[in-house]
Design goal:
Elements: E1 3-7, H1 16-31, E2 35-38, H2 44-55, E3 60-65, H3 66-69, E4 80-84, H4 87-97, E5 100-103, H5 108-122, E6 130-133, H6 140-151, H7 157-161, E7 164-166, H8 169-177, H9 184-196
Parallel strand pairs: 1-2, 1-5, 2-3, 3-4, 5-6, 6-7
Length: 198
């Protein structure tokens, strides 16, 4: 893993704990010679990560849609800034630039990005590790949703088991290094059989 994308908030969160953990995450990337790829903003947890990387001569790569540049929230000191046409193009380029992904607590944008890359992995459009940094149980409601999706037959149990989750940054990265994509053949065949037998 050379370039790690972090999905995170444009807000700071109500507890300084999250800012401290963002600094810890950036320091982990720096210590392991990894570059940051993120949304390119100068606000919220996004800027905490980028500023920490840049203050210690790390690499911070931003991807920003033109519409948000007009709102003057772009980080001015990034190693690289890619300007794209839309939010969708932003996600596409972040996926292309990154070797791995970490979901850090955030809002709807974080949820959108996490959902998209998990879906791309599931259908083998991408085979890159995605870690969920479950600080203070922040992502528990999402994990409960997955539990229910498996229970109700809308998600495969093997995909649930392949989720990478931890509240520890070092442990999360160790799990990500061990990530193995799942073969599509069996579960696609299972879905076809279920559809025929309805």
């Amino acid at each position: 893993m050379q370039k790690v994308s972090v999905f995170c908030g444009s807000s700071m969160g109500s507890d300084p704990y999250y800012q401290n953990k963002a600094v810890e995450l950036a320091n982990y990337l720096l210590e392991h010679n990894m570059d940051l790829v993120y949304g390119g903003a100068s606000i919220g947890i996004m800027t905490v990560l980028a500023d920490t990387m840049l203050q210690k001569d790390g690499v911070a790569i931003g991807v920003m849609p033109k519409a948000l540049i007009d709102k003057e929230i772009t980080h001015k000191g990034l190693t690289e800034l890619h300007v794209v046409e839309s939010m969708s193009a932003r996600k596409d380029l972040i996926v292309k630039l990154s070797d791995a992904f970490v979901a850090f607590p955030g809002g709807m944008g974080t949820l959108d990005e996490l959902s998209e890359i998990l879906t791309l992995n599931q259908i083998r459009v991408e085979d890159k590790p995605v870690g969920i940094l479950n600080l203070k149980g922040y992502f528990d409601p999402i994990l409960d949703f997955v539990d229910n999706a498996v229970k109700e037959g809308f998600m495969r149990e093997e995909h649930q088991k392949n989720l990478i989750v931890s509240d520890s940054i070092p442990e999360l990265f160790e799990k990500m290094k061990a990530y193995q994509p799942l073969s599509m053949k069996k579960w696609i065949e299972d879905i076809k059989t279920e559809s025929k037998n309805r």
